Automatic annotation (TrEMBL):
Cross-referenced SUPFAM superfamilies: Actin-like ATPase domain, Swiveling domain of dehydratase reactivase alpha subunit
Listed InterPro entries: ATPase_NBD, DDR_dom, DDR_swiveling, DDRA, DDRA_swiveling_dom_sf, NA-bd_OB-fold
Domain DD-reactivating factor swiveling, residue spans: 94-255
Source organism of this protein record: Hominibacterium faecale
Cross-referenced Pfam families: DDR, DDR_swiveling
Protein name: Diol dehydratase reactivase subunit alpha
Amino acid sequence: MKRYAAGIDVGNATTEAALGCVDENGLLQAVVSGISGTTGLKGTKENKRGILHALSDACSKLGICLKDINALYLNEATPVIGDFAMETITETIITESTMIGHNPDTPGGLGLGVGISIRLEELPGADRTKNYIVLVDDGFSFDEAALQMNQALEQGCKIVGAIVQKDDGVLIANRVKNIIPVIDEVRLIENIPLGALCAVEVAAKGATVERLSNPYGIAGIFSLSPEETEHVIFVAKALIGSRSAVVLKTPKGQVEERIIPAGEIIFCGEHYEKSVAVDAGAEAVMEAQEKVGVLLDVKGSAGTNVGGMLSSIKATMAQITGQQQDTIRIQDILAVDTMASQSVAGAMAGEYTMEHSVAIAAMVKTHKLNMEQLASEVTEAAGIPASIGGVEGDMAARGALTTPGTDTPICIVDIGAGSTDACYFDKDGYKRTVHLAGAGDMVSAMICSELGLDSIEEAENIKKYRLAKAESLFYIRYEDGSVEFFQKPLESRLFARVAIVRDGELIPLETRHSMERIRQVRREVKQKVLVENALRALKKVSPTGRLYGLSHVVLLGGSSLDFELANMLTEALSHYGITAGKGDVRGCEGPRNAVATGLLLSALEEEHG
C-alpha cells in the first residue's frame, strides 16, 4: 500500500518540503518539492503556516491532499535564530550654526562664490563694495527671485552665489544675468546666520567640488589658523564626491568627528573570558572570538550601543520562545567593517556622511523544546503525525549526496538568509557540523547601508541581479561591458539610469551611484560576509582544522543560487586546492531542498533499513 511522507526544512527566509511516495517495501516511487516563505521567526510556533503552505505546494504536484500524508519529519533546526545590527563607530557633529556639504539633485549655475550672507529682500540697501551670497526663502517664486537679483546686479550689487530653500536652483540660475553657483533644497535656511562669510561651490556636470572638499582650500577661503584647519578636515571629508557644497563660518561654529562609545563585546569561553572594544574594528572582534575556543555566550558592556543590541536580541528571543532571558545564549557572532550613511548631527539641509561602522550578526541558540512544540502544532492543525528529524547540517549533507557525482567524504556549505552552516563526514562515520551567524540578510543590510538606499527591497534586488545602464533609448550596457541593442525604444524612465535585470525586465534603481560603484559595493560585501564566513565554517568542520584538509565542497542553500557567489567561492577555495560547485539535489533541485530531502531519506532508512 502506498504511503506519503515529507521532510520539512524551516529556514530563516524559506520553508521547503520534500514529499515522497513510498511503496510497501519502503522504496521511494516519486519525490517532489514544495516551497513557501517562512512565517514568523525560525524555530517558533508561527512557522506552522509556512509549513502547511510548502506542503500544499508539494501535494499539488503529486495530485494528493494534505490529509493523504502519513508522516512529517521536521529539521531539528538547532533552533538557531540570527539577528543583525550596525554599530556606528564615528559620528560627524556640527555645533552652533555651521553647515556642511549639501548635495541637491539639481544645483544651478557653476563655479565658486565667496561672500556675505544676505536676504533677497535686503539687496537694495546692500553695501556695493562687498560680495554677497543671497538667501532665497520659500516666500519667493523663482522668477521673482531672479528679477530682484538682476535688478540688484544692474544697480552695482556684487552677487556671487545664492542659497535657495525650494527646488528652484536651475530655474533661478538660468534667469540670472551672471553665471553664479546656486544651491537649492536647503530646508532650514532660516538657521543660516546673516552677515556670515559663506562659500558656495557648484561643479560642472559629471565633476565634483574641489575647493570645498579640500581642508586647505577651505582654510584659504576663510583665512583659518592651523588649529581651525584641523576642525574643517571633517567638513571636507563629508563633501568628497559632492557636486555642490556650502560652508559657512560663524564665530562659535565648530565641526568635529566624535568617537561613539560603541562599547565592548565580552566573549565567554569554557575556560576564560575575552573582551574587545567594538571600535577596534571587526578583525579584532573576530580574533577575540577565536581565542576563547568553545564559545558559551556573548555579552556587551552595559550602557553602550553593542550592550543594548545584544541584550535586545536575548530579550526578543525570550519573549518569542517563553524562556527566561538569562537562559538564552549567543553561540556565534560575525563582525564586518563597513561604512554607514549617517545623518550629520546639527546640519541644516539633511546632509549625511559616510561613517565608520561595524556590522554585527549574532546567533542565538534556544531549546529543542520549541521545535517539539511546533511539531505538535502542525500535527494538531493538519492531522499529520509530525516528529523531529536529524540535525540540520547532517541532513543537508545527506541530501547533498543525491547530487550526481558525489560520494563520501563530503563537505557541504549551506548559505541561507540568517546563517551559514557547514558539515563534513567521511566513510568511517566521522562527522562535524557548525552553524555560524551571518548570511544573505546581512549582505542586504550592508548594501542598503553603504549605498544609502531607502529600502531593503532595493538592496535585495542589487544583491540578486545583474546591473545594466540605458545609454540610449535603443541599447543598454551590462556591468560586464557587453551591449544589447533593441528594435523598439526603451521606456524614457530608463534613460541614463542604472537598472537591475530581473527575468529579462529592466527595473531602474532609485540611487545616484554609478553602475561601477554599485557593483563594487555588492561584490565587496559578498566577499566580506559570504565568502569569508564560508571559509570560517569550513575550517571549523575540517578534520585538520585547516582548509588544506579538504578536497571538494558542495554549495547548498538559497544564497548559492546567487548569480556570482558560486564563482567567487570557487575562486577563493581553488587557492587551497579545493574543488567547489553548486549542488544539484536529486539531480533536479539545484542547491535547494537538501535538508528536506535528507530528512525524508534519513527517516525512511531508519524505518526500513
